[in-house]
Amino acid sequence: MTTLDSTLAKTHASRALLRCKTLSAISQMQGGIHREYLSKEHKECNETVSQWMSDAGMQTWQDEVGNQWGRLRSSNSKAKRLIIGSHLDTVPNAGAYDGILGVLLGLEIAALAHHLKLDLPFHLDVVGFCDEEGTRFATTLIGSKALANNFDPAWLNIPDSQEITMHQALLDFGLDPSDVANAGLNPSDILAYWETHIEQGPVLESIDQALGVVTAIAGAKRAMITLIGQSGHAGTTPMNLRQDSLTGSAELVLEIEKLASKAENGEVATVGQIFARPGATNVIAGKTTVSLDARAQHDDDLDNLINEIRSRAELIAQKRNLSLDWQWTHAAQAVQCDSDIQALFTEACRLNNESSPSLASGAGHDAMATAPICPIGMLFIRSPGGISHHPAEAVIDDDVTKSLSVMFSALCLQAKNGLNG
Ligand SMILES: [Zn+2]
Fold it and tell me: Domain range for residue 339?
């Protein structure tokens, strides 16, 4: 068996969508969806998903960091684990599908494998990660980093907005802070990690495709770039005697847009903040800071773009008699999706008469945190309007059915390939 009966696919996809709605109601926010790490809603959500996992014939447990697991056991004594998952936490005023749908589709795949009595040569593990968004403790991907043995004990001291530390919140939740590191997995036990996720961008919609095979999760670098000139009286300082940091920054902002637009491998760069000081209508700005967020699916492309931006900033500063200060605030390397898994997903699409356009992910995902311990693969589902992290976040029902069919075929192909991928 490599493809799923279409009625069965539709039934299970509909159930996943219905359950997204059910989980939407488990919210710490009135009139919207918000579910953060170690909240009572996190616990309630895990309990609900755990019950669904049991109903699907899975063995269930919550791990030391608060991730929810279900396992469809293999009869093979040497079985490794194929992990399918995503996250169950949300940003404030979230949509219903970001992360959640990936977990529930994994659950439906397991329910189908159980129902059809598939004899899998690996354990099929479905995971609902406890924290991907990082809205409570100002650090992201806590659940998946813990899995990859990258939980930093220093995080335990981070307070939330109510001054409750992660240490205390773990205790309140019923978890042992000294035990969190034990959530880490042994890489030799894992076959792969697969994640289905809404695209959260407009690319698939723009090419009229339901699904996309992810090639890489983009690397990102962020900096605060300050140009320093001389504040002066707006009335008495002639134009040719000015050292205006704001007009210099304006020129830089447009250069950043130009450089990213002509980059050839999908690089993007954004200036989202600008601070001009002293910030008065009748004073020439002496000091202006702009933010820079640049991303690319290959680290060398990102470095090239950043180098170009930096040399352009130096040139502008020189030309306008300003000085330049460049402060890095964030750097994350690009993570490549496993080429064999990409080929597997592409073949699974073909078996279901679906196209399989390749695209990179501009946003971060749990898959990037699990990449250090196993090969990763991601399948994207079209996001109508490219909207996400917003109540208007949506999916097309038929796209969800297609994604379930493709993931089921991928599971069958993987089972045929046995333990060696
Ligand atoms: Zn997500």
Answer: 6-217+334-420
Q: How many domains does the chain have?
A: 2
Q: Distance between the two ends of the chain, CA-based, in angstroms?
A: 18
CB count, 10 Å around CB of 183?
23
Last residue of a domain, one of 332, 352, 370: 332
Q: Compute the distance from residue 116 Cα to the ligand 1 centre, in Å.
A: 30
pLDDT digits (tens, 9 = 90+) for 20-76: 999 999 999 999 999 999 999 999 999 999 999 999 999 999 999 999 999 999 999
Same domain, 173 and 235: no
CA of 361 to the centre of ligand 1 (A): 11
Q: How many whole angstroms from 365 Cα to the centroid of ligand 1? A: 6
Indicate whether 208 and 282 sit together in one domain: no
- Rounded to the nearest angstrom, the distance between the alpha carbon of 218 and the centre of ligand 1 is 14
Distance from the CA of 38 to the center of ligand 1, in angstroms? 17
What CATH number does the domain containing 227 carry?
3.30.70.360
195 and 314 co-located in one domain? no
Considering the domain architecture, whether residues 18 and 146 belong to the same structural domain is answered as yes
> How remote is the CA of residue 199 from the centroid of ligand 1, in Å?
9
Distance 92 CA to ligand 1 centre (A): 13
Contact 344, 176 (CB under 8 A): no
pLDDT tens per residue across span 125-157: 999 999 999 999 988 999 999 999 999 999 999
- Ligand 1 center to 262 CA (angstroms): 29
Same domain, 383 and 359: yes
Distance from Cα 111 to the centre of ligand 1, integer Å: 23
What is the C-alpha separation between 382 and 211, in angstroms, rounded?
6
How many angstroms is it from 97 CA to the middle of ligand 1? 8
Answer yes or no: is 359 within a domain. Answer: yes
Amino acid at 335: V
Cβ atoms of 2 and 350 closer than 8 Å = no
The Cα 127–Cα 82 span in angstroms is 10
